[in-house]
Amino acid sequence: MNKVLIVYYSRKGENYWNGSIKHLSKGNTEIVAEMIARLTGGDLFEVDTVKPYAEDYYLCTEEAKAQLQQNARPELKHYLDNLDGYDTIYVGYPNWWGTMPMAMFSFLEHYDLSGKRILPFCTNEGSGMGVSQRDLKKICPGAVVESGLSIHGAEAASSQKQVEAWVKKLG
What pLDDT sits at residue 113? Predict the structure, then answer.
């Protein structure tokens, strides 16, 4: 049995979008996560912090930078009871300062992911996966971290073919 989980963090509201700030009713990473869920039949889980990030995009980036510099682990609102039933875990996030938001570290470090297959995907405005795959290998010892998928955030809604090809290749 290969049960699939798609866990993601996504930013709604003010986002950097092709060189300017745009208000998004749904975050780019959430859009891609939902595509993966439709393609795999997997369960979706959205990571959410107890203390929300600033609504202002630029203030949010400063908060994210400070958390990275402090190696912080923001408190999360919810966790899954366990991940025992899942063999494959898609991990989605925006690329913030070259890696995942620290909230994703909080979530992933909460579990023993030994023997799990991790498939990372990120949205970004040109920075690709950054060092997030390396970070995933560090914080998920014993897991197999596959090659990730980088999606240009402004093209998330039109990335169905790219997402589908990646899921089929690694599925």
Answer: 97
SS3 assignment for 101-165: CHHHHHHHHCCCCCCCEEEEEEEECCCCCCCHHHHHHHHCCCCEECCCEEEEHHHHHHCHHHHHH
DSSP letter string over 78-99? ---S--TT-SEEEEEEE-BTTB
> Distance between CA 6 and CA 21 in Å, rounded?
27
State the amino acid at position 140 in one-letter form: C
- To the nearest 10°, the Cα dihedral for 6, 131, 52, 43? 0
> How do residues 102-124 score in pLDDT, each as one tens digit?
999 999 999 999 999 999 999 99
Q: Are 101 and 136 in contact (CB under 8 A)?
A: no
The pTM is what? Answer: 0.96
Residue 2's pLDDT is what? 76
- Indicate the pairing of strand 13-17 with strand 149-152: unpaired
**Separation of alpha carbons 12 and 25, rounded Å:** 6
